Amino acid sequence: MPVSLSHPARRLFIRRTAQLAVAGIAAPLVPTPALATESDVRSLALDHTHTGEQLDLVYAQGEQYVPDALASLNHFLRDHYTGDVGVIDPNLFDLLHRVRLELGVSQSFEVISGYRCPTTNETLRTTRSGGVARRSLHMDGKAIDIRLPGVPLSELRDVALSLQAGGVGYYPSEQFLHLDTGRVRRWQG
Fold first, then answer.
1. Each residue of 110-168: pLDDT tens digit?
2. What's the CATH code of the domain at 112?
3. Residue 134 has what pLDDT?
């Protein structure tokens, strides 16, 4: 019986293989003689609510980001309306990773929106009843709209706020949280 890419054993195998590959590539760049520990590895698991795509990867080890992983994340978080791919701020990935660590969970974030091209942003801003900023950080690859299955949205919000790492927009009626790497602020939509 074939194992799907989303099967937990397959995902674990892929994650461990990627970690070993990253260790082999990044070890010469890291100034420590030993291989990085598990805590030095930063990973993300994402499910896109609009495209149906899933991604589970190691994007950094120690102080080194993995270029191929960043490219995969940029593509995954592309504007799902136009297909335009932006460059996502790696600090946003670190923020998501920290949120998962603080919550002590490993499940995938559900992504509602990542990068938005200016045309999409303007269309959404003028056709929705608010909630889309004229100069949205989504256009700069510094914002993401997410939820985390099994975690109450208010708990997700509280953890994000406690990190003091950027903006946190709480949208309980739409069931998502906006996170960004801009200045520290909060709002409710």
1. 999 999 999 988 888 888 755 677 788 999 999 999 999 999 999 999 999 999 999 99
2. 3.30.1380.10
3. 73
DSSP symbols for the chain: -PPPTTSHHHHHHHHHHHHHHHHHHHGGGSSSSSPPPGGGEEEEEEEETTT--EEEEEEEETTEE-HHHHHHHHHHTS-TTT----PPPHHHHHHHHHHHHHHT--SPEEEEE----HHHHHHHHHHSSS---TT-GGGGT-EEEEE-TTS-HHHHHHHHHHHT-SEEEEETTTTEEEEESSSSEEEE-
Evaluated on CA atoms 109, 182, 93, 121, the torsion sign reads: positive
Residue 97 lies in a domain: yes
- How many domains would you assign to the chain? 1
Cβ–Cβ < 8 Å for 115, 94: no
pLDDT tens-digit readout, 22-34:
444 443 333 333 4
